[in-house]
């Protein structure tokens, strides 16, 4: 085991570029949505619940033939950790050689989880949002920050509005964003005011009850909801889900894991991979929701990119 190279968070950050990640993930999501002939093997993640401590451990294996990516991520998510000043998500990824099954690298999974989730939301946004100038972000944690970083890099964002259930978090993130990107940032005390003028909304919270409900929004707003990854949890109201065109990363995951989908009974229009393939329409002139649960294939593709980049560096 100690002969396997370990790549830590800094190696991952240096190796992964959002543009490259987006193009690799776009193709892999399309492969996934082709069905069996797409060359993606990915079971539903297995999750062990640690009820006593409100924690979860998920195992996420996947193989993506077109990327030669065979990997398994182990991720814990413990919502109560934020009160202890600890990360709420901790993850490691083990990458294997596809020809022999030999483990070839172990790497940090936290940065990959943040970046690949934001990259996938960016893919959905690219296809489903009519405009991408005003971004409203609900939440101020790891995913909120990664989404802002990705969206500023990939789109011509002009204004960012932030809401968090604890205003301190929103203020802190706003300071970081304005210092890093020099973009106009405003913090809002309520969700409704935050989203009213947005072209694109990101919901990235640990809520278990809907925080984004029917309210005044642009008619063609696009919503990326990355939180509420459990069947009993909701981030979006049932009414909002039922009055939007709903896209998901995986129909299997959404119908088994997403409280937003399960509790609302909303119809799923299709997978984002089907949009990439041109098999279903991108309804960009209507209100769209992209419900993201997070897929193992995304981690496998990202881990393979990191590995290839680090191996390349050794040669130069
Ligand atoms: N779809 C995907 O691929 C992935 C989804 N996720 C999910 O995305 C969500 C955000 O993850 P991440 O940013 O890493 O987590 P963080 O812990 O870094 O951030 C969580 C955010 O949610 C806020 N929050 C906590 N409790 C509530 C509440 N009851 N109501 C409203 N807001 C709340 C926190 O505010 P404060 O800190 O001020 O309490 C913080 O802003 C989680 O649900 C996570 O499981 C994560 C990884 C991948
Ligand atoms: O895709 C992931 O990784 C996760 N998704 C939701 C829960 C935490 C981890």
From TrEMBL:
<comment type="similarity">
    <text>Belongs to the ornithine cyclodeaminase/mu-crystallin family.</text>
</comment>
<protein>
    <recommendedName>
        <fullName>Ketimine reductase mu-crystallin</fullName>
        <ecNumber>1.5.1.1</ecNumber>
        <ecNumber>1.5.1.25</ecNumber>
    </recommendedName>
</protein>
<dbReference type="InterPro" id="IPR023401">
    <property type="entry name" value="ODC_N"/>
</dbReference>
<dbReference type="GO" id="GO:0047127">
    <property type="term" value="F:thiomorpholine-carboxylate dehydrogenase activity"/>
</dbReference>
<dbReference type="GO" id="GO:0005737">
    <property type="term" value="C:cytoplasm"/>
</dbReference>
<dbReference type="GO" id="GO:0050241">
    <property type="term" value="F:pyrroline-2-carboxylate reductase activity"/>
</dbReference>
<dbReference type="GO" id="GO:0042562">
    <property type="term" value="F:hormone binding"/>
</dbReference>
<dbReference type="InterPro" id="IPR003462">
    <property type="entry name" value="ODC_Mu_crystall"/>
</dbReference>
<dbReference type="InterPro" id="IPR036291">
    <property type="entry name" value="NAD(P)-bd_dom_sf"/>
</dbReference>
<dbReference type="Pfam" id="PF02423">
    <property type="entry name" value="OCD_Mu_crystall"/>
</dbReference>
<comment type="subunit">
    <text>Homodimer. Binds the thyroid hormone triiodothyronine (T3); T3 binding inhibits enzymatic activity.</text>
</comment>
């Amino acid at each position: 085991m100690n002969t396997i190279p370990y790549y830590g968070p800094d190696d991952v950050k240096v190796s992964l570029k959002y543009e490259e990640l987006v193009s690799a993930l776009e193709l892999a999501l399309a492969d996934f949505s082709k069905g069996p002939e797409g060359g993606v093997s990915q079971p539903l993640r297995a999750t062990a619940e640690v009820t006593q401590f409100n924690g979860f451990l998920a195992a996420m294996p996947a193989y993506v033939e077109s990327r030669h990516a065979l990997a398994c991520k182990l991720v814990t998510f413990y919502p109560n950790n934020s009160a202890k000043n600890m990360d709420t998500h901790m993850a490691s990824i083990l990458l294997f050689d596809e020809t022999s099954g030999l483990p070839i690298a172990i790497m940090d999974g936290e940065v990959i989880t943040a970046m690949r989730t934001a990259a996938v939301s960016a893919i959905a946004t690219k296809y489903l949002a009519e405009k991408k100038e005003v971004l409203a972000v609900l939440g101020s944690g790891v995913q909120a920050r990664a989404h802002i970083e990705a969206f500023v890099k990939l789109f011509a964002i002009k204004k960012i509005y932030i809401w968090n259930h604890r205003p301190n978090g929103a203020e802190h993130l706003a300071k970081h964003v304005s210092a890093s990107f020099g973009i106009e940032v405003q913090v809002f005390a309520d969700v409704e005011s935050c989203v009213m003028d947005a072209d694109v909304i990101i919901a990235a919270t640990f809520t278990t009850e809907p925080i984004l409900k029917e309210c005044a929004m642009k008619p063609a707003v696009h919503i990326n909801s990355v939180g509420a990854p459990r069947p009993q949890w909701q981030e979006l109201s049932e009414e909002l889900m039922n009055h939007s065109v709903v896209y998901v990363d995986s129909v299997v995951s959404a119908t088994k894991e997403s409280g937003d989908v399960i509790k609302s009974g909303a119809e799923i229009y299709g997978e984002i991979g089907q949009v990439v393939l041109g098999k279903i329409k991108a309804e960009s002139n209507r209100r769209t929701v992209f419900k993201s649960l997070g897929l193992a294939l995304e981690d496998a593709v990202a881990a393979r990119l990191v590995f290839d980049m680090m191996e390349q560096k050794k040669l130069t």
